[in-house]
Amino acid sequence: MGDGYFAPADNTFRLFVSLRFEATEADLQAWEKSFRQASVLLHKATNGQMRFGRVDVYNNRAGGDKADAYGSRLIGSANTNLIPGLGIVGGRMNLLAHVPWHPYTIIHEFGHYALGLYDEYEPVPAQCSGDPDQGVCIMEHGRQHGDRIDEEGNIVLGKVHQFCDAATHRIYGPATEQHINNDEACWETIQKLHPLVTIPPNTPAGPMPGPPEPLEWCLIPDESRFALLLNTSPPVGAMSRRAMRHAARYWLDYMAVTGEQLGIVILGRRPTAILPLGHEIEASLRERTNLILERGPDRGAVSATAAAAAGWEQMRRAGGRVATQCCLLVSAPQQADTPANELVDQLRDQGIRVHTLSLPEARETAGMRELAARTHGTHLQVGEARLPEMQVLNHLVQLSGEIRDGGTIVDMAALALPPGAAPPRSVPAAARPAEVALTPVQQPPDSDLLLERPKEACVVTPSGFTHRSWIERGARRATFVVTHPEDAHVRLVLKNPAGRTVRAAQRRVAIVNHDDSPTAFVSVLEPDEGPWTLEAYRRRSGGELPLKVFVFGENRRLQVALSVQVCGRRADFTATASYDLPLAGLVPPRVSVVPPDYAATGTWINVRSTILRQKDPRRRGVYTGCIEFPRPGEYLVEVALVNAGKARAVNLGRSRAAGQRIEVPRFRRLIRRQLYIE
After folding, report:
1. What does the alpha-carbon distance between residue 497 and residue 70 come to, in Å, rounded to a whole number?
2. Nearest alpha carbon to residue 113 among 165, 189, 188
3. Phi, psi of 39 (to 5 degrees)
4. DSSP secondary structure string, 71-100?
5. What's the CA gap between 177 and 139, in Å, rounded?
6. Crossing angle of helices 103-115 and 186-193, rounded to 10°
7. What is the pLDDT of residue 272?
8. Between the CA of residue 268 and those of 247, 304, 332, 362, 576, what are the distances in Å?
9. Residue 78 near residue 99, CB atoms below 8 Å
10. What pLDDT does 114 receive?
């Protein structure tokens, strides 16, 4: 979601911008100049009542999950995917190549995003005032009528610097989008969303306000999206060390394929080692981290939330945050404590989720659970009985897939391979290099695979299994992961929708399939649309082998999110699926709830599929609802967001050429949240 907000105390907007390319110094200067002038234009248009206060800018595709605006080098028309979108999960402005030279375009799109306004220029010519030269309304004109920056870098003031009010909002011919959707002038809509502002008198001929305070332009340095905070002051046993070894090996493989960076903060009596993971693993981890902070010996054990607070302070002292998305706190707390409100507020203000992981030696986990719940993270209590290393590993696999920019879970499955011999000889060796053409396939989509995940999507054979997942058109990357609880020599074979095997670590394919690691995964860049088939085989016979399958899809045009607010035994949900074109075929989200006693009873909580209802017909893809939980405990909630694509094309409305239609892909995304209900 965009993390921006309006601060009524000083009438300023805080915004986050993610540049979706590697911007040069000249590029950054152009974007900064355009936003500064856009703030001046907003100040004029609102008679001094609104401006930009601070803009945080992320370069080279960082910060995508928190961005209010994407800036790109694409050519086309700037747009806003949700009206209004400020503070709503998935809302975003898409600013294209011309924007650094047209501050006016920023405010026009900002009118959609933060002020709830629709276009006033449908159809051409402008219909709000009926006179393009009058300068009545920012929402009725193209960028040629507004403030711009010329080739020499000078600011050229345009004719248009106001929003229309009831007196100037007129309809000449067909109704405008603003009139159809809001049935009022722009200023009336603004006042409904921001009731503290007043409509300026004599718009647009009233006096112009003085210059605004300059905005604070903050370029966020290159950072990792994930920080690991290890609290080693409590005792850590052999079982936990083994679990962290598996996790460290997975993370090394993961970073090798994705290029992800990891920030590490170590707190404890002996911070010279991350954990006793072995010199080779530690050396490799240190090579692949962009920041390691170490704290000297403590006199005693540090509580979990005290470790989080100390780690947060060290991250900030290091000259910028270590994590732009989330932090993983690993600890074995020995005493109960409560996270300080100030710490939680700071983390939430920065948009950082804290995921907590309690090691088997932990005696008291209430503070860890509360810290995760209040920052919208998850908590994992690692037990001693059932393979703690795999609990840690599966948790990291899920988190790493979710925090990647635009990466979300397509499918998850738990399977068990029966005892069996090695696979037949016809199965190709994953390590053999060979070039495989990943050709597009034209075939009807498997709607059942999208909607209900039929049983035949996972088929177990005596020597392996097949698992099918639908990858939508336009995905930047698809990653298929299998985890297993022992060094069982699992071999993966991935087939594209045309049935051709992907074997080679070529430019578009990366395979990590080590015999000595309990993880194996295949990552494919720019995958073809359709059902991909993952086959897993064991290389040696043995007993039953439990496996978990994770499939992640990255699509920067597609954003899905789940926001949860827990109050007592009630949890309020907002689920969002947004695309940069209107969605068609979006079905009500499916909600599944696993109660605390599921392992003993095998009984799920029945939740109607209509638990999440569409919030507003004009805001497609935003669903809200609530769940009342019957008793305290830790629940697992899974929400499935599905665009079934019943209409293969979407009419883009009268702003486009008559009859122009663009297809929106079918997709399925899963979001899981652990909720701690008191």
Report:
1. 31
2. 189
3. -65, -40
4. E----S--EESSSS-TTSTT--EEE-TTGG
5. 10
6. 60
7. 44
8. 20, 12, 12, 16, 40
9. yes
10. 92
Q: Which residue has the tokens 């068990």?
A: 416
Cβ neighbours, 10 Å, residue 660: 11
Q: By the 8 A CB rule, do 379 and 372 touch?
A: yes
Rounded to the nearest 10 degrees, the angle between the axes of helix 238-258 and helix 388-403 is 30
Quick one: how many helices (H) and strands (E) in the chain?
12, 34
Phi and psi at residue 555, in whole multiples of 5°?
-145, 110
- Per DSSP, helices labelled H in 288-439 are 304-317, 341-349, 366-374, 388-403
pLDDT score at 249 = 77
Rounded Cα distance, 656 and 654, in Å: 5
Nearest 5 degrees, angle CA 302-CA 304-CA 305? 105
Which residues lie below 8 Å from residue 154, measured CB to CB, with a gap of 6+? none
pLDDT for the residue 430: 39
The residue type found at 194 is: H
Nearest-angstrom CA–CA distance, 602 and 594: 9
Paired with 490 in beta bridges are 538
Tokens 């009985």: give the residue. Answer: 385
Average pLDDT over residues 27-45: 92
Range list of H helices, 407-537: 447-451
229: CB partners within 8 A, 6+ apart: 265, 267, 307, 308, 311, 327, 328, 329, 330
Q: How many residues does the chain have?
A: 678
C-alpha span between 568 and 587 (Å, rounded): 29
CB 261 within 8 A of CB 289: yes
DSSP-derived pairing of the beta strands 407-417 and 379-381: unpaired
Mean pLDDT of 503-523: 71
Q: Residues 360, 382: contact at Cβ < 8 Å?
A: yes
C-alpha span between 614 and 40 (Å, rounded): 37
Q: Burial of 408 by CB count in 10 Å (0-12 exposed, 13-18 middle, 19+ buried)?
A: buried
Pair 108, 655: CB distance under 8 Å: no
Sequence letter at residue 19 = L
CB atoms within 10 A of CB 456: 10
Give the tens place of pLDDT for each residue, 201-254: 766 666 667 778 888 888 876 666 777 887 777 777 777 877 777 777 787 777
Question: Measured between alpha carbons, how far is 92 from 664 in angstroms, rounded to an integer?
Answer: 18
How far apart are the C-alpha atoms of 85 and 79, rounded to whole Å? 12
Residue 243 in tokens:
């679990």
Tell me, what's the pLDDT at 38? Answer: 94
Per-residue pLDDT tens over the stretch 514-542:
656 788 888 888 898 889 998 888 766 77
- Longest CA pairwise span in the chain (Å): 84
The residues, ordered by sequence, that sit 6+ positions from 40 with a Cβ below 8 Å of its Cβ are: 51, 103, 147, 211, 212
Q: How far is Cα of residue 212 from the mean position of the Cα atoms in its chain?
A: 34
Question: In the beta sheet, which residues pair with residue 51?
Answer: 12
Contact 534, 494 (CB under 8 A): yes
Beta 622-628 vs 570-579: how paired, if at all? antiparallel
Phi, psi values for residue 487, rounded to 5°: -80, 75
Hey, what are 395's tokens? 């948790």
